[in-house]
Write a structure and sequence with these properties.
single chain, 295 residues, mainly beta, 2 helices
Length: 295
């Protein structure tokens, strides 16, 4: 069970305003925990500036201290129990910044002792600029395994660059990674469109997995569409190259997907079974040269 206290508490951390609310005290499975929502405002309220929010959980455990006591005739054991600090858990950290020049919104999630990714953090940030038609989205993943560290960063930039009177570039993708590689036929464009509910689903986007053999990796992509309407045709193209830790060439792969009679704003239409979903006509092209396996 747990005990909840409503209301909020405001205080200052240095010169920054902080707030606590939704304080809870709980006991389960021999552990006691206290949690609270924490808010931190990094700028003046009048500036409507940078702020961060998360939920912090302090977990304690019950320890037993046994002492053997003897008076020469009788020997008995004395047990003393006390609570001690076990660990601190921080939920997803939400960040938000709004100014007259731009808007910034994102989340950061921490993970620990994951069987695949080890220990580290991942995050996503979306920035809205007046000169761009949509938000710029960036993603990052930093972590460590037993004997190496890894990272991945990428960014999706909406843009409008005419290529011909009937065709234009609608979006650019760029990414870098180290000690990480993406599975064959993974499509970041599709994953980005499906990832609409927050950091909990960032795994679907960053389907890069740690690899001891992988060194630096580069990813570049573009979305193109017909003008003035993208309903006639829109498509994505990506090129990726990966090198080993010694600098040798590992593999290169090219992905291309074209959709006909389907709006570019509805990316993510391809279902997991590959039937194209809402696009009545679509085509895919995938090529990979694996230098390590000579295939």
């Amino acid at each position: 069970g747990f005990l909840s206290v409503s209301g909020s508490v405001g205080f200052k951390l240095g010169s920054f305003k902080c707030g606590l609310d939704s304080i809870r005290l709980g006991l389960a499975n021999g552990q006691m925990a206290i949690s609270t929502n924490v808010r931190l405002n990094m700028m003046n309220e009048s500036d409507r500036g940078f702020s961060a929010e998360s939920r912090v959980i302090v977990i304690s455990q019950l320890n037993e201290e046994k002492t053997t006591i003897s008076n020469g005739k009788v020997t008995y054991e004395k047990v003393k129990t006390r609570w001690s600090f076990d660990k601190l858990k921080v939920d997803d950290i939400a960040i938000k910044c709004k100014t007259t020049a731009y808007e910034l919104e994102g989340q950061i999630a921490l993970f620990e002792k994951d069987p695949v990714f080890g220990t580290g953090f991942k995050g996503r940030v979306a920035m809205k600029l007046p000169v761009l038609p949509k938000k710029v989205e960036a993603h990052a993943w930093f972590g460590s395994k037993e004997d190496y560290r890894y990272w991945h960063v990428d960014a999706f930039v909406p843009i409008q660059i005419p290529v011909s009177p009937a065709l234009s570039i609608r979006r650019l993708l760029g990414g870098l990674s180290y000690h990480m590689e993406r599975p064959a036929q993974f499509d970041p464009f599709q994953a980005m469109a499906q990832d609409t509910t927050g950091i909990q689903h960032t795994d679907a986007l960053l389907t890069y997995i740690p690899s001891r053999e992988a060194g630096l990796g580069f990813l570049a992509g573009v979305t193109i569409a017909t003008d003035p309407s993208a309903d006639v045709f829109n498509g994505d193209a990506m090129l990726e190259m990966s090198f080993s830790t010694s600098g040798g060439f590992r593999y290169a792969q090219f992905d291309g997907t074209g959709y006909f009679f389907s709006d570019v704003a509805k990316l993510g239409k391809q279902k997991p079974n590959g039937d194209g979903g809402g696009a009545p006509v679509f085509a895919k092209l995938y090529m990979r040269y694996d230098n390590s396996n000579k295939s």
